[in-house]
Amino acid sequence: MNYFNFTINFLTILALSWYVILNLQWYNYKLKRVILNHHKRSWHILYFVLPLVLWINLEEKYFSIALIVYVFALFLWNKKLDKTLVYTKRVNRFFIIITFLLIFTYFTDNKYYSFASLIITLIVSNITEKLLFFKYKKDARKKLDSIKDLKIVAITASFGKTSIKNFLYHILKNSFNTYKTPRSVNTIAGLVLDVNKDLPKNTDIYIAEAGARVKGDIKTIANFLDPQYVIIGSVGEQHIEYFKSLENIKNTKKELLLSKRVKKAFVHKSTDLEDRNFIEVFPKELKILKSDLDGLHFSFLINKKEEDFFAPILGSFNAINLSAVILLALEFGLSLEEIRKTLKTLPQVEHRLQKIEAGGKLIIDDSFNGNYEGMMEAFNISKNHKGRRVVITPGLVESNDESNIKIAKKIDEVFDFVIITGELNLEILEKNINKDKVFVLKDKSKMQDILASSTKSGDLILFANDAPNFI
């Protein structure tokens, strides 16, 4: 192969490989999800299929012009993304393999060997990562076993698991050496990395989340962590597109109970489980005494006695999350008075009904709350604001049309100005919201300018479920 043709083929496959690995990173390196569950499949046609077809059908000297356009288009597209490629060790290994294989195509006369290099790279990379992960997982389990008297708490739910984790950490941290997984890390790969890299060896209590996209994901985490304490929070139709039915979601969440060491499990009534052996259903007779922009007052039964609590956080649904936290804190030996005192200092969870005051405007950052109940609660809280109300939202992601229609109608009832981000639910939202108060934001990089020109002092601005722009 001459040098010109080799260079064109090399750069083309490298550009296609970059697009592939970026999408794999978005979807947790699951090729099936990239192909079948991608929220913007038109991108596959524009940035993969079309350039590939042109490369196959055009001679290199003609395709070279198309390649320049393609690379420039990728550059502009990447600049608009809010989740760009992170060059992890895994990604770097991927590019080393593809580069190595592409160099060898110089000695062939068939350009299709270049594309075969991408396919081979995907296979080799997958095998390599599985072998490395097996070792990392073994090392992580060994580290967990080496920490004397370590208590492990595993938390799962359709929504609220990160909040439960953060609340529990705050309650326990002054009484025990407590460590929690960072951010929303909840996959087996993320947990293995966290244990190996960051879990302190003097930890008394390790609090971890367990997430799932398919049946068996949580079972894998349960087998790895082998937690003594389990919380299964509210279960609903989040990620219904992956599980197909609510029953499948419930069964997957209940996989956390397969831990061989479980001593106590607090499970929400939405799991359809009953009190037995180590399982305790919560909450018992929960009452929301008051929920507004100042905080949350609630009560529920503990040992058949009504106990009341206050926390300076927003959202009545958080009473469910906090009731599980309180019950587990009692299990660890804390008193009700200790718990009440600590609850009063509970910090807001970032991006989950987080109240911020800036420039005379009241901002409610609920950008990480992507479930129906949570979004409706955010709307109800916003309704109490006496001034103008603004919402920025893409609607519900990984949910059904019926829920998005209800969301849209509630938005129309509560808000004076609506900024719709993303195209996923655009049609449903526009059909059910008064068009005079709707603004469609196609480029999220311009959001700050739009808010500056469209809002004023005294306004409430709600960020509801800020999906990344590949959604």
UniProtKB/TrEMBL annotation:
Mur ligase central domain span = 155-328
Entry's Gene Ontology molecular function annotations: ATP binding; UDP-N-acetylmuramoyl-tripeptide-D-alanyl-D-alanine ligase activity
What EC numbers are recorded for this enzyme?
A: 6.3.2.10
Keywords for this protein? ATP-binding, Ligase, Membrane, Nucleotide-binding, Transmembrane, Transmembrane helix
Transmembrane annotation, as ranges: 6-29, 41-56, 62-78, 90-107, 113-133, 309-330
Task: List the InterPro entries hit by this protein, alphabetically.
Answer: Mur-like_cat_sf, Mur_ligase_C_dom_sf, Mur_ligase_cen, MurCDEF_CellWall_CoF430Synth
Protein's recorded name: UDP-N-acetylmuramoyl-tripeptide--D-alanyl-D-alanine ligase
Identify the species of origin: Aliarcobacter thereius
Its taxonomic path starts at: Bacteria, Pseudomonadati, Campylobacterota, Epsilonproteobacteria, Campylobacterales
